Amino acid sequence: MRKVSSGTKTADTVFHVATGIAASSPVVLLLAIAAVVVVQSIPSIRLMGWHFITGIEWNVGDTYGALMHKNGVTAAAGASFGALPFIVGTLASSVIALLIAIPVALFTALILAYRLRGWVQWILSILVELLAGIPSVVIGLWGMVVLAPFVAHGLGPALTHVGVVIPYLRGPVGTGMGLLTSGIVLAVMVVPIITATTRDLLQQVPVLYREGGIGLGMTTWEVVRYIAVPYIREGFIGAVALGWGRAMGETMAVLMVSGNAINFLPHNLYSPISSMAAVIASQLDSAMSDGSGMAVHALSELALVLLVLTLFTNLLARLLVSRVHHRRRGVRA
Amino acid sequence: MLNGTSKWASLSIAGLALTALVAGCGTSNGSNTANGSGTAANGTGGQGGTQTVTLNETGSSLLYPLFNDQWIHAYQQVAPNVRLNAASTGSGTGISQALQGTVQLGASDAYLPPSTLSSNQGVMNIPLAVSAQQVMYNLPGVTGHLKLTGDVLAKIYQGQIKYWDDPALTALNPTVKLPHQQIIPVHRSDGSGDTFLFTQFLTDTNSNWANTVKYSTQVSWPSLSTGIGANGNDGVVTTLAENKYSVGYVGISWLNKAEQKGLGYAALQNKSGNFVLPETANIQAAVNQMVSQVPTNEAISLIYAPGAQSYPIINFEYAIVKQQQADPATAAALKKFLSWAISTNGGDSAQYMTPVHFLPLPASVAPKSQAQIDNITG
Question: pLDDT in tens for each of the 378 residues of chain B?
C-alpha cells in the first residue's frame, strides 16, 4: 500500500470542499434568490392579496403626501399594485415571439443540418450564433428606429385587412411601439437560441434512419416530417422552452419598443404593453425614493411572479418532454 | 471507499451552509436598503488634505450636460486633487443612490418627499442652480409657438382631448391651422424629475389631475392606448422626433438638441393668464416671485409662480447629499465643491449657465444652500 503524505491528504480535503461548494451552488443560489424575493414581497402580498395578479391599476401612490396604513402595512396614500397588464404583456409578447420563431428556427435548422455542406454551412452556423450574441440593447435600438416605424406604416396597416377575420388584428395601428413590435424583437432574439439547439439535434438523427426513409421512396419533406422531426421532438420542446424563458425575462429590448403601457390591458395586436422585467428595470429607481418602501416590495412581488411563471413554463416543458418519452416507449414495447 | 457517499453528502451540506451564510448576509443588506436605513456610506478618498479624493455624481439627465461638460473640467483648475465623476441616470437613481451612500452627490430636479426626509435622517436637498422645462411637439407644417395651458395638457394626457383640432386647442391658437390627427402623448417611463415638474404643473392647473394622478417622479399615468412611455430626456426627444403629432415634456438643457430634430415648443399659460416662453427673462421673473418663500430645508416647488411674466415650469436643480460622509477628507472636498458650484464666481457663473439655459441661484437663496452645505461632516 502506498503511503499517503499529509500534503496529498490536504489536497484531497481541499478538493472535496471545493467541489462540494461548487456542486451545491446552483441549489443555494436558486434558494437564496427565491428567499430574498419572497421575503421582500411579503408586505406587498399583505397589502394587495390576490388583487396583485388580477388588478390592472399600478399606482405607487402619493409619495409626496401622507402615508396610508392598510392590512397592517404602510404605503403611500392611494397605493395600488395590480400587475395584470404586465403579466399579460409578458405572456402575449413572448407567445407572439414563439409563434414567429418556431417555424423560422425549425426550417433554418433543417437547412443548416441537411442541405448545406462545407464552408457555406460553416459561415451560416457562425452567423446564427453571432445573432445570439448581439446585445439586447442593440436589437432594441434597431426595433425602435427601424422596426417600429415599419410596423406603424407598413406591416400594421397591411395586417388590419386581415382584421375582418381575426378581431385582434384590427386597428388602430398606433405608433408602432407595442405588442407586435415587442414580439418581433423578441423573436429575433429567440430564433438563434432555438436554431442552434435544433440544428445540433437534427445532426444527431442517425443517417441510417433518413437513408431508410429515402430508400422507401419518401420525399425530402416526408423524411423531415415522419423521421427527423419525431426523432428530435423532446429536445425541440426543450429548446422552445429555453427560448420562451429568454423571451419572458428579456428586459432592455422590450423596454425600448413596448411603449411602456401602464394601467390598461392590450386590446389589439398594436397596443402599447409593458413586460414584468421591463417594469422592474424602469421603476426600481423611483421606487427606492418611496419613503414607505412599499414600491420596492411591489416590484419584488412582480419579480416573484416572473420567477414562478418562468419555473412553471420550464416544468411544463419538462412534463411535455417526459410524456412524449413515455408514449414512444409504449409504442416500442 | 465505503463511506464515500455519506462523506460527499456531508461536505456538500457544509458547502451549502457556508454559501447560505453568505447569501444570508446579502438578504439582510437587501432589506436595509429597501427600508432606506442603510447608514454605511461608501466613501472613497484619502485621509490627508493633499491626497486625491473622488466624488461621484449620478442622477438628473437635465443637470448632466452642465455637470459633465462644464463643471468637471472647470473644477479641475480649482482643486486638482479632487476627481469628479458624473453619470446621467435620471433623478430617481440619483436620489436612491445618494440615500444608499453609493455616491456622494445625487442630482435631482425634484426635492425629496417628506416621507423620505423623515425616514432618512441627515439627508439634505441642496439647490445648485435654476432650471426649466418646455413642452414640445412634432407638428409638421406648424411654425412659431403653439399656445398651451396646463389644463389642456392635463386633458390631453387623460384622453379627454384626442385630436389636434379639438375646439379647446383651436380656441387657444386661432391663427394656426391644426390637423385632424390623433395626439400621441409621450411620458417618461423611468423615474424622472421632469415627470415630477410636469405632473406638478398639471396638478396646479387641473383639479381632476390633482385628485387622481397627483405628482411624483413616477406617477400612475391615466390609461391611454395612444400614449407612449420613453426612457430619459434623450428617449423622449427621439420618440417625439419619430412620431408625428406627438407631444411631450423635455428639460431645458435638451432644448437645442430637440430643436435640431425639428421639434417645436409651446408658450405656456402662467398664473396671470399670459402665454410665456422658457426664456431667461421669464424664468428669472418666476424665480424672483418665489425666492422669499424658500424654507430652510429648501424643499419647495417653483411651479406655476405668480407674476405677469413668470414662466410656469421652473425648478431648482438639487444635489441630494448626506450630512454624514465616510471620512473628513471626503466631507471637506464635498463642501468645497458644493460651495464653488453655487457661487456666481464659480459653478453658477454665466459662462457655464448660458449654454444649458440655466440660471444661477438667486442671491437670497445661495446663503440657505451654503448653510446646508456647512452641515456636512466627515
Answer: 444 445 554 544 444 444 444 444 433 333 333 333 333 333 443 344 467 899 999 988 889 989 998 999 999 999 999 999 998 888 888 888 888 888 999 999 999 888 788 878 889 999 999 999 999 999 998 988 999 999 999 999 999 999 999 999 999 999 999 999 999 999 998 888 899 999 999 999 999 999 999 998 889 999 888 888 988 888 899 899 988 999 999 999 899 999 999 999 999 999 999 999 999 999 999 999 999 999 998 999 999 999 999 999 999 999 999 999 989 999 999 999 999 999 999 999 999 999 899 999 999 999 999 999 999 998
Domain with A38, as residue range(s), is 6-80
Helix (H, G, I), strand (E, B) or coil at A272: coil
Chain B residue numbers with beta carbons less than 8 Å from the beta carbon of A297 are 34
Among A80, A96, A113, which residue terminates a domain? A80
Shortest CA gap A309–chain B (Å) = 23
- Whether the CB-CB separation of B287 and B116 falls below 8 Å is answered with no
> Do A101 and A216 fall within a single domain?
yes
Give the alpha-carbon dihedral of A280, B64, B148, B301, to 10 degrees.
80
Given an 8 Å threshold on Cβ–Cβ distance, is A296 in contact with B116?
Answer: no
Contact list, B34 vs chain A (CB under 8 Å): 40, 288, 293, 296-297
A133: in domain:
yes
Closest chain A residue by Cα to residue B181: A174
Residues of chain B in contact with residue A292, where contact means CB-CB under 8 angstroms, are 115
Q: Do A64 and B216 touch (CB under 8 A)?
A: yes
CB contacts of A291 in chain B (<8 Å) are 36, 113-119
The answer to whether the bond into B80 is cis (omega within 30° of 0) is no
> B199-202, long-range: CB within 8 Å, 24+ apart, which pairs?
B200/B301, B200/B303, B200/B304, B201/B150, B201/B153, B201/B268, B201/B303, B201/B304, B201/B312, B201/B313, B202/B150, B202/B153, B202/B154, B202/B157
* Contacts A84 to B, Cβ<8 Å: none
- Residue A252: give its domain's CATH number: 1.10.3720.10
Would the CB atoms of B225 and A267 count as touching at under 8 Å?
A: yes
Q: Is residue A235 part of a domain?
A: yes
- Is residue A166 assigned to a domain? yes
Of A19, A24, A283, the CB nearest to B19: A24
* Inter-residue contact B341 to B86 (CB < 8 Å): no
Closest partner CB to B229 (pick from A36, A148, A259): A259
How large is the ipTM? 0.76
Let me know if domain B4-130+317-373 sits in CATH 3.40.50.2300.
no
Whole-structure pTM value: 0.80
B181 contacts in A (CB within 8 Å)?
none
Q: How many domains does chain A have?
A: 2
Q: Which of these three, A80, A115, A139, is where a domain ends?
A: A80
What does CATH list as the number for B133-285?
A: 3.40.190.10
Portion 173-202 of B in contact with A at CB < 8 A: 182, 184, 189-192
Residues A55 and A156 in one domain: no
Candidates A221, A203, A223, A196; CA nearest to A106 is: A196
Burial-class residue B156 by CB neighbours within 10 Å (0-12, 13-18, 19+): buried
Indicate whether A213 and A305 sit together in one domain. yes
